[in-house]
TrEMBL record, chains A, B, C, D:
Keywords: Lyase, Pyridoxal phosphate. Signal peptide: none annotated. Coiled coil: none annotated. This is Low specificity L-threonine aldolase. Residues 17-295 form the Aromatic amino acid beta-eliminating lyase/threonine aldolase domain. It is an enzyme of class 4 (lyase).
Amino acid sequence: MLPFANDYSRGAHPKVLQALVDTNMDAQPGYGQDKYTKQAAQKIQAACQLPDAEVFFISGGLQTNQVVISNLLDGDEGVLAADSGHINFHEAGSIEYTGHKVLTIPGVEGKVTAANLQAYLDDWKADENHGQMVAPGIVYISNATEIGTLYNKQELAALSQVCHANHLPLFMDGARLGYALMSPENDLSLPDIAKYCDVFYIGGTKVGALAGEAVVFTKHNVPKRFPTKFKRQGAMLAKGRLIGVQFIALFTDNLYFKISQHAIDLAMKLKQALKNKGYQLLIDSPTNQQFIVVDNDQLAALKKRVALSFWENIDSTHTAIRLVTSWSTTEDEVDALIALL
Amino acid sequence: MLPFANDYSRGAHPKVLQALVDTNMDAQPGYGQDKYTKQAAQKIQAACQLPDAEVFFISGGLQTNQVVISNLLDGDEGVLAADSGHINFHEAGSIEYTGHKVLTIPGVEGKVTAANLQAYLDDWKADENHGQMVAPGIVYISNATEIGTLYNKQELAALSQVCHANHLPLFMDGARLGYALMSPENDLSLPDIAKYCDVFYIGGTKVGALAGEAVVFTKHNVPKRFPTKFKRQGAMLAKGRLIGVQFIALFTDNLYFKISQHAIDLAMKLKQALKNKGYQLLIDSPTNQQFIVVDNDQLAALKKRVALSFWENIDSTHTAIRLVTSWSTTEDEVDALIALL
Amino acid sequence: MLPFANDYSRGAHPKVLQALVDTNMDAQPGYGQDKYTKQAAQKIQAACQLPDAEVFFISGGLQTNQVVISNLLDGDEGVLAADSGHINFHEAGSIEYTGHKVLTIPGVEGKVTAANLQAYLDDWKADENHGQMVAPGIVYISNATEIGTLYNKQELAALSQVCHANHLPLFMDGARLGYALMSPENDLSLPDIAKYCDVFYIGGTKVGALAGEAVVFTKHNVPKRFPTKFKRQGAMLAKGRLIGVQFIALFTDNLYFKISQHAIDLAMKLKQALKNKGYQLLIDSPTNQQFIVVDNDQLAALKKRVALSFWENIDSTHTAIRLVTSWSTTEDEVDALIALL
Amino acid sequence: MLPFANDYSRGAHPKVLQALVDTNMDAQPGYGQDKYTKQAAQKIQAACQLPDAEVFFISGGLQTNQVVISNLLDGDEGVLAADSGHINFHEAGSIEYTGHKVLTIPGVEGKVTAANLQAYLDDWKADENHGQMVAPGIVYISNATEIGTLYNKQELAALSQVCHANHLPLFMDGARLGYALMSPENDLSLPDIAKYCDVFYIGGTKVGALAGEAVVFTKHNVPKRFPTKFKRQGAMLAKGRLIGVQFIALFTDNLYFKISQHAIDLAMKLKQALKNKGYQLLIDSPTNQQFIVVDNDQLAALKKRVALSFWENIDSTHTAIRLVTSWSTTEDEVDALIALL
């Protein structure tokens, strides 16, 4: 099977895995107190050009969203997200599990815009009954978004300004941040993101790690006793080193960015081929996820040879599917896929 | 001020209050074990023509929704409601507080239709990723709805059928059930509701009681140790008699229905007057809540004389307002309001 | 049956009920925005000699404990209580329902002592693993305690000092505060309590009201948007007036204190009679709850004539029971009980 | 530093790590749908001699306890545990986070005994107020216990019988199950545990894996849609293979048991040396955790050369410490430690 279902179907990048092998027998303290976790944090501070960023490592993306959002919200607050946001649909109600509502804003290409956020907040303030409603408490975005689109610098700066004018922290889910930053359409740097966002995470699971995301608080805004808080939520690994070691490898010699670039190059080759072959793009994505509409007979045939993702039913005879490249996709695999399409 | 802001601005119907006075010094067990609570339950079983209905009394509507929904949902399930549903907006996130998501269905005149529910369930089943999504676990409706509209018997029967075919309990919020049942457009009886719904509540707070709602489980489907469960949620009064005594009074000599009829008669008189005067009805409501659009200058003037409810901003110069009659509204008050409009 | 099971077996004191009758038809805003709620708050500020106390009304004691504690705790914090504390046993896990642990301290006559609290805190700080434990976040006491005992001024001052030295708010559950303050052994005033505690409540349900407790925040320490927060928890009555009106009556002409005094006088008469008859007091209680040990044959006989409370099994032939007086107990009832004992 | 602080200070057993390397580039579905997870489950079914056991993999012990307990409890139920139970102290309130109380039973050498459990249940049933209390819903034990002691077959059988007679599932935390099973004092087999327990887990994190625990439901008693439920709680890894691959390695050629035996052999050597040198054993532990009391001056000296764990303060000049061996401890390290003692 050609592996285009997602960007987490293989293990770790060989250099990441080698780092685990190399450090394996070094005895270290548990629960994130090991030297590797500290070094990884320093690597990320450097990459963000923010020496006083506070960095924590969590094992998965859903868990990171859950832990960050719930600990930054006050009791009666909810999280604002685009209606297509990952936390609103595909995380099994993990935000509500923590007692908080996901408040939705109409997305524009999957993004929360400054204008739509401002409109939401204006409506909320103007509603004389808002004391009986969930208060907006944090803004959640993802970059790349759930549908592979990107925030540009102007959009992120404008959104950040609205957030801060309204005392709302801005949180970026960066599960696919590497793929976003390496897109030909991207104009944001990691320091830009650290500047505009109050907290964000750099995704490892989908970008070359076995598991692990690096959460970065950028404004001296870490919740008090945060490790105890996320331990209580089940999100602390005994062997925190597992993630620390991997992030050291990912942030050595720009590995994170190089392997993201590789995935993007292949995604752009695939996208061009899809266009050439006349496929309807469901979304014009500049990142590693490509969405097309296929008829169901073709889909059935493709599924015998290609691992791909169902996206949504279009009509009784057509389905939208997702094809994803990753750090591990080979050019041969892309060529084979193109030949099948 | 003329009191048209809501249907809970005065105390209790005089007969209800008198019942509290009459029983005041009778010593009774606490926590709903008193004889009045038992008698009230019997009155409601009789009114529903369902002798084995299981009846509980809770002090308010939000609390009842919270307690019923959360105890009927399995861990990963959510509650389906119309997008305009009360629990989705004006209950301060009380469902999410219990760890569950409100899943919204496009409402038709504020109602969940059998067709829209079926479409939601079909989509959910067809989505190959639904294992990563909140599962539908109960259907919440209100009658009258948040915007004063009614389910007719055909609609409720059809909805009930879809619910039961999909093993979903159907829960009706009857905060304004008296006003629904007495509407000229209503064709449902209390026994009909007991037949089609798995659980519903008969609202007291808005229909003549100081506080209290009667929850009716109709299908031998009470959660195990339900009183302990809702006690744990803070919803059990030490003096459960407070609600029991009131419901005895409300269900003696058809008081509940007579005082509801009174409110509906006045609402219809008001509605006709509003039409005669050329007001734009925001919604064509057959119950005790009437919604009109007024210009903001007129609104400012009205507010000096009338207690009314902001509903929503229409545009920069117009606002939708709500005018509500109740068991306690007098014909003089309605006439005075009409004179001001 | 002679009513000695508890202090909430009858309705409201006649003057309280009359106040409800007198104000019944006055239309007022809902959700605690009515004038009676405001007046009641002022009455309580005056009684506490604390004009800037912030006062809220909640319908029951368990709910008040739940709402106050959960909104004053940070995510990873728990509430410290005596091991015999009401919240630890008889509230059905209502604190844990909000996600927080009850941390227990060995009680001394049902009380948290300054020394035992300090010892707990010292141990916690000295434990090198305390980052993996629930952090102490608030101290819960009740006065009178679960077993009828009292804090004296010296004890409360000492406890308050330890709390404040450790940045822990001190919360007093005053479900039976009237009975505590009127005990012959009491040396605390309401202003003392307002001085030493950060938040406390004045119980109405057990002292003459149908339902309702007055929560007093004494140090400008109300959680932000507290009403929205407790609405979300199901604890806000639509007709907030119900509680406000009753507290106005209770705090007019010292009614609250007079009716508490009445209950204490009868309890002391009962206690003396129990001693004279040679009963073993389980606890030497100076308030309205008296605890004795009886043999099970006598208990069976008593239960035919007296409503009383099971307290605990002592051995196979003896049971501890609780006998409670209240604002509504009559001298005839006490005499009749004594004659039976 | 000599690594005796815990059993999770190093990475993975070399064979476990090699298995990750060998399978690294094989593309597999995510979220536990991969072939390795299935194979690992079969290995565990075989080891338990229970072909229809239902097996799931979770990344850590605290998270496993949280996920299993919360999904097996009904709303108003709590989990029974020994007062010294891990979930009661060192998991940061993770059970309470899910809304449930930890109900404690006096432990005997860290164990819940059948007699003490029966006594708890008898008291609970005899308490006439138990409807206002948390109901017992599941029994949690750990083997080896928090203090290194073991359940023998007779004890476990008796406990299981009391559980089942009372309709309480019995859950064994097996974070250190390998070390328990290889103890010279053990008489339980994995099939015995599968027989007596309703659910248990086989710990990987402390026994040779980077992360991961295998949860085994033995009585066709998996909660409905369990994977969605634990995903919602943040406990599902995208690359479920990470754990599956490791457990295949651990359960190939008895690796799990061999490496556990190694740790036990070294622990027994250490224990004998401690006895020979006259140390006071805090607990007589037959497993890989040894507890001794040292004076604080010696402790300060030891800490310069040995990574060890603080256990508890004994008095102002003595401290109890824990010394732990693991799969990765070498005989040289034990000898070096003994030389220092």
